[in-house]
Amino acid sequence: MDSTTPSPPATDPDILPTRDGYDRWAAIYDGEDNPLIQLEERYLPGVLGELRGLRVVDLGCGTGRHAVAAAAAGADVTAVDFSAAMLDRARAKSGAAGVRFVAHDLTRALPFDDGSFDVVLCCLVIEHIADLAGFFREVGRVCRPGGRAVLTAMHPAMMLRGITARVTDPATGRETRPRSYPNQTADYVMGALRAGLRLDHLGEHAVDEELAARSPRSRRYLGWPLLLTVRVVPEGAP
Question: CA nearest 112: which of 72, 66, 55, 69?
């Protein structure tokens, strides 16, 4: 920035490449009051189903919260992320020895054979992906016939309020946002359908009084849909 370019107001958030944003977030990610994660903990188990004995890949595993839990539930788990700081946090968790961790950018072809997994899991990631059709093609490719893919995202309605994934950077004290894309619910649905996947579940989950009581941060969004849950299966699956 040269001397003739005005500095942005202090209130403007820092918009970072997705990997850099999550590298900064990693140190405090698990300890935050995060209403999106709390809502996901309520609804994801019913969408995900039983995992014991299944081959599971967790795409965008972050700090390993789902990967470690799936391994503890008896699944054979592979976890993928491109944030080195997030992977460090995941590997340090109790139970992480039962998970295979892979460093990989999800905007590239996945480094797995066709039909490698019974369950593809991807939580709070797809709002950071621009090429949804390409991503869903890879999800469908690595999911075996008869398997399922379960995805969650911040609900697109939040973007109508200017809300995207964000953190107060512990090093700078500034609001920091990993790059997100204004994907709409229809973009997710059509991305999956165009990739040859069949929509099996679509859920929209709003902030209610119970969540607002546990998460003061969420009260301002009372009544607004905060979480989107999606389950898709390969075409031809029963």
Answer: 55
Q: Is 161 exposed, middle or buried (0-12, 13-18, 19+ CB in 10 A)?
A: exposed
If residue 188 lies in a helix (H) or strand (E), which one and from where to where? helix 185-194
**How many other CB atoms sit within 10 Å of the CB of residue 190?**
15
Which tokens go with 24? Answer: 């900064």
pTM of the model: 0.91
Question: Can you read off the two tokens belonging to residue 109?
Answer: 């072809």
From the list 220, 195, 197, 196, the residue with the least C-alpha distance to 207 is 220
**pLDDT means over runs of 10, the chain (238 residues):** 40 87 91 92 96 98 97 98 97 96 97 98 96 96 97 93 86 88 94 96 96 91 95 80
Spatial strand order of the sheet with 14-16 comes to 14-16, 175-178, 167-168
pLDDT at 236: 64
CB distance 69 to 10 below 8 Å: no
